[in-house]
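Entry:
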Amino acid sequence: MTDARPIAADHARRFLVRRHLLDPPRALPAEPASVLRVIDRIGSLQFDPLEVPGGRNHDLVLHARIRDYRREWADHWLYAPRDERRLIELYNKMLSIVPITELPYYRLSWTRGVTNYTEFLAEHRDLADRIRDHIRETGPVSTAAFRDHGQVINWWWDTNRPPSTRAARAVMEAMFVAGELGISRREGSRRFYDLIERLVPASLLAEHAPEPEQVRHRLISRHRGVGLMAESGAAELVWGTGAAPERRRMTAELIEDGTLIPVQVEGIKETRHILGDEWRIVEETARPDPERVPAVSFLAPLGPMLWDRKLVRTLFGFDYIWEVYVPAPKRRHGYYVLPILFGDRLVGRVEPRLERATRTLRILGIWFEEGFLPMEEPHFVPALQEATRAYRSFVGAEKVTWPRTRIGRELAKATR
């Protein structure tokens, strides 16, 4: 086993922010091709349909990295005609967006989906046949096309409550997970499904990488996402990358062939790993740049910079929980709260909410870490002003309102 190379904590923070394309933020060219550049760097984007802050999770990730980002740029690559598609939605770490050319290395998701849903689809064979025939004859459809099928069943998200999911929705989801249907487009949160062979080139559908290679590829994708990942991690971070002994063996092989470089980060007990082809970024960030003025970006809650909560807590001293599923009385902050990155520090949280009717970006709350004084911190207020301006433009708001707290009033006045 190669000895781990030492790296100081402040150096590790600079490296992570640079390799996550956040130093500086919103710096990639304002064009659809930049979406592909982001995914090429971080491997995949987690998809979540909630749009409370004015954009979906992957749009928030892209906005933080691409100048004047527009959500239709990602949608173009996801939902273009078959021969023009560059991205596809499938399960990697939860529902994710991955390059369509890597499909042969992600088919394991479909293989396991078939195994998991064979009995379920057999039980609902008549409805599944009806869905196939309808799509084959009429083209992409949503579950609304089957509202006449009134059966309600207990689906996986109905745990501990009465059955409430329409059978057509569950069957189409099962067919999607099993790789029989794909998402042709979305209208709001509604999926329109089509037969997968209409969405993916036949040459790609014919390719099947061996299962060990698929598991290896999936493990590398998590390293591409985190950027400084340990051999083990939270369950959802390592899901689908093999049991611990298998992951240990693959990690050793990846170190041996130079794909990964082990590092010992100051203040962190376990060995972490950096992708071999990103070591140049380690060298570029070895020393702080005294001429660089720190900028502000708002981080997506499910963005790869935050996948490894333990790393965020130990390296940045920032304890972050996405509280959308926490009952309101138990929330420490707000419903949909975004961490505030200032240079290479996580200094606070903000809760933006888009009111579409009035085209107003409401800052429902803003909180700062203990010891961080935003009004006294050099460069912070103008950096926050620029980040807020960019976010307002991104969500299509015409004005911004701040919370009626002391700090909210001070920031409103300072950034007006």
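The CA atoms of residues 53 and 236 lie 24 Å apart.
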